[in-house]
Amino acid sequence: MAATPADASSSSSEAVVGGEKSNKMITLISSDGESFEATEEAAKMSVTIKHMIEDGCADDGIPLPNVPAKILSMVIEYCNKHAADADDTNKHVADPADADEDDDNNNNNASAGEKEDLKSFDASLVAVDQATLFDIILAANFLSIKGLLDLACQKVADDIKDKSVEEVREIFKIENDFTKEEEEAVRKENAWAFNE
Amino acid sequence: MPDKKGATMLEDLPGEIMDMILIRLPSKDVGRCRVVNTSWRSATSTPKFMLKHHRRQPLVPIVDAHGRAVSHVVFGDVGGGTSSQELWPLVREGNLSFTLKGSCDGFLIIYHHTQPSFFIRNPVTRKYVILPQPQGQFNFVIGFYRHHPTGEYRVLWFSLSHDSSKSSVYVLTVGSDKPRRIIVKIPTVSSPSVENRLMNEVHFSSGFSPPVHHRGSLHWWLSGSSDITGGCADTIVFDTEAESFRWMRSPGQHCPNSMLFDMKGTLAFWAGSTPASFSTMDVWVMQDYEAQIWAFKYRIELSTVEASRQLYLTSYKKKKRTPIDSMVQSFNDMAVLNERELLVRFNGKHVLHCDVDGKFLGLVKIGKNQHCMRLAHYRLQESILPIPSHEMHQG
């Protein structure tokens, strides 16, 4: 679950445009006291952690009292995978000959195979039970990791899509707090959403 | 923060996160979510939520399918890919006959022949309001736009006297009762009769395709204006803020089979490469609006669209009663879906889906019907927003 530290000798040969690539490892401490290591690059996918690093608060490890170990390890997995992808893109863009006016998409320089790989990684990351999914959302929100938050929210939306009102209430254990008359009125108002 | 006592539930998520989830739902699902409980109902009913939801929806072209009854469908393409197409009826088929006269964001302007009157309708919520008309005998919609400074939706009316000798232009703010007359003054045009002819050209142009709303102005390309303008400028522009007219130039192909359109926020223009050509289409984009410099973007040639072979296979497999044309003989029209994909109308009756390299992606069908398809040149971006009005109807 901890990210393997990059070898100091091998990484310095890469030339990256704009910004230095640091090999520094960051220690993240879960709410239940477990320590995890991640590369600074991966850790900085969290804007919250990025600011703490820049403010010099990260030297003794960053305690995350809101994130339990099980979730933190999944978050780090996401960051490792996506930080590597972002890095690949940066390497490609460094060569102006590769620049294409149509490349307005971050992932465009990744090959189709790499894109597919990332997509299936993302899909399996959020293919978890409800409670875990919500915990991931809360962690991604707290840590300000936009990509992960978007991914997890989209998964919940996909689970709601095409379901009936009763199914949604049941699946998510939501209590119906409308009175019978109120519910009828809301249904009537939104009748367009119901029939085919 | 997960509850130590039990597993995290949906209701443990803060409001802003619930909003992030609900906003990702398609329109109908949002409507259904309003019935789940009171908090979901209020979250999905704020103007802010509905506007944000609307802005996330894809902008899709409308295809007009004349089957036994007139029905308009929207061609939807699953974002960013060439995967599946979805078509669904915008207005239910009924006894009433109607024509689409305008579209803006999530609203359509519909003309009912039998009533006869104009309506603004949200095809998703099925709500509609009657559109007040000016007092002239014959009224036509020549523009439907969102006025950016106020956020108001406005309709531009062209009004003709019964003997067609006099015309006037009105602006109606949707939600108000009375259209407001505006003075038409077109630069370099001094005689009222020439002005009248020009406005008729604008009206004629609107009948084929709506004006392009770009940088706060409406743009109509006029195919027949060269004798009026001296052959130079051929596009009339209406500034929606100053409410004044001015001239502009298209790439100047002088081909009758042409059209001005919007491509992802840029002015674009397609035209047959020569006046008589119906087998190629050149697409130009505006590179510098101030200097009016156009740049050639790409050309689609019939020979590179592998339509023939595919069409033959389709008809062979399905044994249609009316055989599909096995050869694409001429282009009539086109609509851009996104950077890579187009809809092209050919042989006067079918619409096909292809990419900018000419690769055939499919034939546009509604159910089993693939005949009499027309590109309506209107686009819809779904919304569940109410129509600004004090009198909204359902139907």
Automatic annotation (TrEMBL), chain A:
Task: Give the InterPro entries listed for this entry.
Answer: SKP1 (IPR016897), SKP1-like (IPR001232), SKP1-like_dim_sf (IPR036296), SKP1/BTB/POZ_sf (IPR011333), Skp1_comp_dimer (IPR016072), Skp1_comp_POZ (IPR016073)
What the entry lists under Pfam families is as follows: Skp1 (PF01466), Skp1_POZ (PF03931)
SKP1 component dimerisation domain ranges (all copies): 146-193
Describe the location of the SKP1 component POZ domain by residue ranges.
Answer: 24-83
Which keywords does this Swiss-Prot/TrEMBL entry list? Nucleus, Ubl conjugation pathway
Disordered: region residues: 1-22, 87-114
Q: Where is the composition biased (Low complexity)?
A: 1-15
Q: Does the keyword Nucleus apply?
A: yes
**Top-rank lineage group of the source organism:** Eukaryota
Cellular component, GO annotation: nucleus
Localization recorded for this chain is: Nucleus
Pathway(s) of this molecule: Protein modification; protein ubiquitination
Q: Which GO BP terms apply? A: jasmonic acid mediated signaling pathway; protein ubiquitination; ubiquitin-dependent protein catabolic process
Keyword check for Nucleus: yes
Q: Which family does it belong to?
A: Belongs to the SKP1 family.
Q: What is this protein called?
A: SKP1-like protein
Please report the organism this UniProt entry assigns to the protein: Aegilops tauschii (Tausch's goatgrass)
Its taxonomic placement starts with: Eukaryota, Viridiplantae, Streptophyta, Embryophyta, Tracheophyta
